[in-house]
Amino acid sequence: MTNFDSPDLQIVTTKSRADKAINSLKGLLLGIISDDIIDAKEMEELRLWAKDHYDLVNRNPFREFMLLIENTASNGIPAKEAVEDLYWLCQKYEHDNIYYNGITSDLQLLQGIFHGILADGILNDDEIFKLHEWLSDNEHLNSYYPYDEIRSLVLSIVADKIIDEEERAVLTAFIKQFVALKNSDTAAQIERDTEGINISGICAVDPEIIFENKTFCITGILSRGNRSELQRAIQDKGGIPVNTISKKTDYLIIGDTHNACWSYSCYGRKVEKALDLRKSGHTIVMVHEFDVFDAI
Prior knowledge:
Strand content: 5-15%
Structural class: mainly alpha
Shape: elongated
Distance between the termini: 46 Å
Helix content: 40-55%
Largest sheet: 4 strands, parallel
Radius of gyration: 21 Å
Oligomer: single chain
Order of helices and strands: HHHHHHHHHEHEEHEH
Number of domains: 2
């Protein structure tokens, strides 16, 4: 078994780890400034991020990052100026970066944004609407986890332009799955605020559905006909219907059953397996039956 923590392997992978760290930092900074307020908790989370990545300090431009983060308070540099300077450095690095991969980097950036908006332990309206704006500007990620799920959830929350406390708690509970806050007090506070909230799968919004040579699995009770009729229609379009979900599955079709499409608690095993496969890197698009029927 490969030891991914071995010093030899870390030398080999330092370039990709540095790129991932830069993308995460860029997202963290975007999340922090999304409400135009930068408080002490957010700056402390930034300092702890730097401490956690100190092994990269000898790789450009990390020395500049670390110096700026470490000296912001002691030199009386305004927090907003420091964050903007750091973001500028990230953009400069991105421009010069040969390794830069669009999809991978954008997903790392999204994870960083999650980190930044939870850094102070509070998810406010401005941050939610800024997140919605970023998601709308990055629809090329629509088939990738967790973009498709978070976009569906945010769209359902901002649709009426009013965010209630239950919606805020559900969104916080979803986002916290992708954030390992360094400040243990803030992390504990978020755990308390989201205690008892169950987050499950969410259907992709306006998914691109390709039938030819793609594999489709169905779960739940359909409201527009029965399962065999849908399977025949998929075959007629060149698709491959299957009864069990696996790494080869391209689409999991969720039956409507008059529930909100992101509330899967009644569907059980197949959705749970799809989520596990997606989290381990397999691209399985979860689609609502209405989208499939519309595509047919």
